[in-house]
């Protein structure tokens, strides 16, 4: 069975060492003793030679590349993070877009059942329906959101608001990009966060809700998610850290690095940290800007369960993606609840129905980023653009209520 860390018998030790060094540069993690982090608490995948499989790792990589799930992947015979993501993406696509429930739920393991589906695809010369869609030939939905981003830049680069003036004036380097430099290169990966109800909190609860929308733009495709762009709690006496409006640079990485056996996938600030504004009352306004901006390296983009617990249980300023479901590139709402874990302790184990649990929709987002990104280091950078719901009106094709529509559709999914 092909799983994270397995490699073909003809792979040289030098190639494994090269992969480890590449991974260290990609993630910034230096102290994992040449092991790969799994989903479960304390799960570490050492490198293991593949045996007893009807398909080699290199064969699997070639299939995934030809079928459209690993377009820039190398057939190096090593199942690393990107290959495992491509396997899960193929499994999820077969389950949802193709509608073949026999594939089961995505677990990133290429065993006899998944190999049988791969062979079925090969016999029919079948490819993902997004093959041929590119940044130069995008879907209509992708084009609408990219057009919005350019309109947002045109507005705020010319007339920055109070917060963005502070960003422009910030004297140090950071992973927050100043408005004139916002980069919407369609060959890169973009994630949009739409902050809604920024002046409201949940009635009677004194807490933020999972009521914000996210749109992933990758290789001409648009996928939609929901969660929160707001902090829910903090122990810092200076107050809650709100990520500033605008573009921020993120990379593949991990959350909670100080607790090695409870380290989980996240998108991390690229290098020096992103800019935040602190407030003590959960309502961010221009008066809070008097305290200045702060550079923060712990404001990640990570998973937030199924959205059943409050934002305060998941976020101290991070951007949180709920695992309950997503809207795919064909504008179809996909329910992930049957395999989406509720809490970290359930990750990587089977539930009462025997279903392997992942982070659901967040795992899909991460797999899209990893499997569809290029091999170069910069290709794995996610350009995260945080905007307000009112900004949506800048593109009439999207409309000011689009974020509410996304959140409503996903919140309505049965658990």
Structure overview:
The protein is of the alpha+beta class. 25% of the residues lie in helices and 19% in strands. The longest helix has 19 residues, at 140-158. It has eight helices and 18 strands. Strand 2 and strand 3 (44-45) form a beta hairpin. The chain folds into two domains: 6-124, no CATH class; 140-411, no CATH class. The chain has helices at 13-27, 57-67, 81-96, 112-124, 140-158, 162-169, 361-372, 402-411; strands at 6-7, 36-37, 44-45, 48-49, 176-177, 189-195, 212-218, 221-228, 240-243, 246-255, 264-269, 274-279, 294-296, 301-303, 319-321, 325-327, 333-335, 382-388.
TL;DR of this structure?
It contains eight helices and 18 strands. By secondary structure, the protein is α+β, with helices and mostly antiparallel strands. The strands form five sheets. Strands 5, 6, 7, 8, 10, 11, 14, 15 and 18 form a nine-stranded mixed sheet that branches. The chain has a three-stranded antiparallel sheet with strand order 9-12-13, with no helix packed on it. It has a two-stranded parallel ribbon with strand order 1-4.
What is the fold's blueprint, element by element?
Layout: E1 6-7, H1 13-27, E2 36-37, E3 44-45, E4 48-49, H2 57-67, H3 81-96, H4 112-124, H5 140-158, H6 162-169, E5 176-177, E6 189-195, E7 212-218, E8 221-228, E9 240-243, E10 246-255, E11 264-269, E12 274-279, E13 294-296, E14 301-303, E15 319-321, E16 325-327, E17 333-335, H7 361-372, E18 382-388, H8 402-411
Parallel strand pairs: 1-4, 6-18, 14-15
Antiparallel strand pairs: 2-3, 5-10, 6-7, 7-8, 8-15, 9-12, 10-11, 10-18, 12-13, 16-17
């Amino acid at each position: 069975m092909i799983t994270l860390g397995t490699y073909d018998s003809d792979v040289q030790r030098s190639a494994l060492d090269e992969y480890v060094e590449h991974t260290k540069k990609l993630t910034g993690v230096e102290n994992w003793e040449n092991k790969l982090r799994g989903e479960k608490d304390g799960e570490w995948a050492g490198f293991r030679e593949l045996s007893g499989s009807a398909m080699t790792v290199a064969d699997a990589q070639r299939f995934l590349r030809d079928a459209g799930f690993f377009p820039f992947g190398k057939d190096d015979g090593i199942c690393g993070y990107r290959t495992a993501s491509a396997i899960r993406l193929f499994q999820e696509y077969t389950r949802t877009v193709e509608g073949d429930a026999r594939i089961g739920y995505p677990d990133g393991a290429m065993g006899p059942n998944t190999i049988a589906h791969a062979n079925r695809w090969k016999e029919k010369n079948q490819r993902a329906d997004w093959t041929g869609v590119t940044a130069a030939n995008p879907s209509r939905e992708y084009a609408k959101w990219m057009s919005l981003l350019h309109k947002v830049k045109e507005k705020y680069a010319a007339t920055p608001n109070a917060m963005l003036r502070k960003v422009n004036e910030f004297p140090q380097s950071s992973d927050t990009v100043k408005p004139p430099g916002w980069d919407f290169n369609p060959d890169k990966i973009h994630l949009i966060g739409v902050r809604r109800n920024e002046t409201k909190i949940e009635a009677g609860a004194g807490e933020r809700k999972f009521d914000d929308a996210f749109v992933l733009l990758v290789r001409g495709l648009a996928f939609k998610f929901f969660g929160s762009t707001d902090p829910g709690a903090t122990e810092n006496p200076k107050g809650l850290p709100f990520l500033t409006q605008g573009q921020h640079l993120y990379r593949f990485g991990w959350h909670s690095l100080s607790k090695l056996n409870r380290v989980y996938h996240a998108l991390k600030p690229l290098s020096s940290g992103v800019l935040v504004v602190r407030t003590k009352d959960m309502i961010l306004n221009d008066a809070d800007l008097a305290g200045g901006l702060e550079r923060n390296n712990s404001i990640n983009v990570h998973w937030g369960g199924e959205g059943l617990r409050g934002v305060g249980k998941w976020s101290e300023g991070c951007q949180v993606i709920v695992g309950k479901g997503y809207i795919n590139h064909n504008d179809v709402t996909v329910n992930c609840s049957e395999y989406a874990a509720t809490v970290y302790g359930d990750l990587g184990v089977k539930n009462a129905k025997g279903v392997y649990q992942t982070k659901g929709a967040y795992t899909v987002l991460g797999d899209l980023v990893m499997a569809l990104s290029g091999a170069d280091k910069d290709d794995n950078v996610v350009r995260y653009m945080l905007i307000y719901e009112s900004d949506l009106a800048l593109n009439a094709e999207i409309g000011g209520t689009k974020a509410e529509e996304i959140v409503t559709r996903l919140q309505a999914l049965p658990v």
